[in-house]
Design goal:
mainly alpha, 2 domains, about 80% helix, about 0% strand, about 140 residues
């Protein structure tokens, strides 16, 4: 569950990086097509413009599909988290989305660190139960 939560917390930043990668690929493709056949392409000397265009498009499609898959997982985890109480949601967002440490979270929530650790364990148990219920319902 912790792995899923860490992945959930980093998804938005990850997808933004992938979007920048797409922009970079599109820029590279545009530059390649401007230079024409004389430019080496990915270390290969003989590549037609059409082949290069197809390679760039395939890479972009792969990245877009990966982003869509990640965002689908993000929204599914978000639906699970919405079923928790408000304070538990805040705790998870501080811990996994903003990646704050327990010291800072305890200051923000006005709790002791020990209470934060205990709450974290309880929240993880609740999330596991919610995930199992959703999978059984599906």
């Amino acid at each position: 569950m912790k792995k899923k939560l860490f992945r959930w917390g980093r998804t938005l930043d990850f997808c933004q990086r992938k979007q920048r990668e797409i922009d970079k690929l599109q820029k590279m493709a545009k530059q390649f097509f401007i230079l024409g056949k004389n430019a080496p392409f990915l270390g290969e000397e003989v590549v037609t413009l059409e082949e290069a265009k197809q390679i760039y498009e395939r890479e972009i499609i792969k990245i877009v599909e990966y982003i869509e898959k990640e965002m689908e997982e993000y929204s599914k985890m978000g639906r699970y988290i919405e079923q928790l109480e408000y304070e538990e949601q805040i705790f998870l967002k501080l811990r996994y989305e903003k990646e704050y440490q327990y010291n800072y979270i305890s200051l923000q929530l006005h709790k002791s660190r020990a209470k934060c650790f205990r709450d974290h364990d309880v929240i993880l148990d609740k999330l596991i139960v919610i995930c199992k219920e959703q999978k059984l319902a599906a």
